[in-house]
Specification:
Rossmann fold, NADPH binding, single chain, seven-stranded mixed sheet, alpha/beta, zinc ion binding, globular, 323 residues, Quinone Oxidoreductase, Chain A, domain 1
């Protein structure tokens, strides 16, 4: 019998319940995994709380790494014993699970399972934001909020490797120092400074080409003030609450701005897109362009504590659950 973290009703971290749950045998197009590491992400908290509606009960979690233990009918290109990783597939908080074979990717030699679990969702988010949503080019200037978080630390290093000038924000002196050590040319403590005014100062009044904002409600309005005319606002998360735009003409008043709300469901929809992103991500890690920061690890049965730490902004880098 395997153990898993199940949500029977949405709510606070206390609704995460450890239960015995047999995964069963893989069906057509599926593989069975014995998981070795599980990534923790803000989307997990959104699903648990009900912000993102889910049909209950469900096993929490969206990314992980493990070893294939069985293969279902019709699956090709994968073998029992192979190490694989995945993202965007609900059901990760478990010792064992079934998963669609076309949504897992082989983990290359030289990449540890914990690293793979820590970077799949966050790293592939950084990939489509930096390469597809706005193709960051050498010489451009970007602003990344929560630069000391799991996605931020990956993305700012990657953007720097692409030749961008990277401005990051963080909420403490410790996090500012971490952001500076991971690709940020400038790091702003938004708890002490007006980040919009500081960005204008850094850019000589021009503004940045693109803002990447996973924080949401608390930073959205001032982020618009950071953009150059016809710049792009990329809102990709809701850590501080959901963004609303009651008056869309604000975009014209602030410089004919563009805004988008991307998601991996659409940017990584096909296996080809998934493999392309994973190949670039793993290559960047192996080359040293991205150094992965695993801030904390928790046992699977401590998932509620992990959620409290993440939502309380007590973490830096990636957080990993260990089955």
């Amino acid at each position: 019998m395997s153990r898993a973290i199940v949500v029977h009703q949405t709510g606070g971290p206390e609704v995460l319940t450890l239960e015995d749950r047999a995964p069963g045998a893989p069906g057509p197009g599926q593989v069975a995994l014995r998981q070795t590491a599980i990534g923790l992400n803000f989307i997990d908290t959104y699903q648990r709380s009900g912000l993102y509606p889910m049909q209950t009960p469900f096993v929490a979690g969206n990314e992980g790494a493990g070893v294939i233990t069985a293969i279902g009918e019709g699956v090709t290109g994968l073998t029992v014993g192979e190490r694989v990783a995945y993202q965007g597939q609900i059901g990760a908080y478990a010792e064992e699970r079934l998963i669609a074979a076309d949504r897992v990717v082989p983990i290359p030699k030289g990449i540890d399972d914990r690293v793979a679990a820590a970077i799949m969702l966050k790293g592939l988010t950084a990939y489509y934001l930096l390469f597809k949503t706005w193709a960051v080019a050498r010489g451009e200037t970007i602003l990344w909020h929560a630069a000391a978080g799991g996605t931020g630390l990956i993305a700012t290093q990657w953007a720097k490797a692409l030749g961008a000038t990277v401005i990051g924000t963080a909420g403490s002196a410790e996090k500012v120092a971490l952001a500076k050590a991971h690709g940020c040319d400038h790091a702003i403590n938004y708890a002490e400074e007006d980040f919009a005014a500081r960005v204008r100062e850094i850019t000589g009044g021009r503004g940045v080409d693109v803002v990447y904002d996973g924080v949401g409600k608390a930073t959205f309005d001032k982020s618009l003030d950071c953009l150059r005319p016809r710049g792009l606002m990329v809102s990709f998360g809701n850590a501080s609450g959901v963004v609303a735009i009651p008056d869309i003409t604000v975009l014209s008043r602030k410089g004919s701005l563009y805004i988008t709300r991307p998601t991996g469901v659409h940017y990584l929809a096909t296996r080809e897109e998934l493999l392309e992103g994973a190949e670039l991500l793993f290559a960047a890690v192996k080359s040293g362009a991205i150094k992965v920061e695993i801030g904390r690890t928790f046992a699977l049965n401590e998932a509620a504590d992990a959620h409290r730490a993440l939502e309380g902004r007590e973490t830096t880098g990636s957080v990993v659950l260990l089955p």
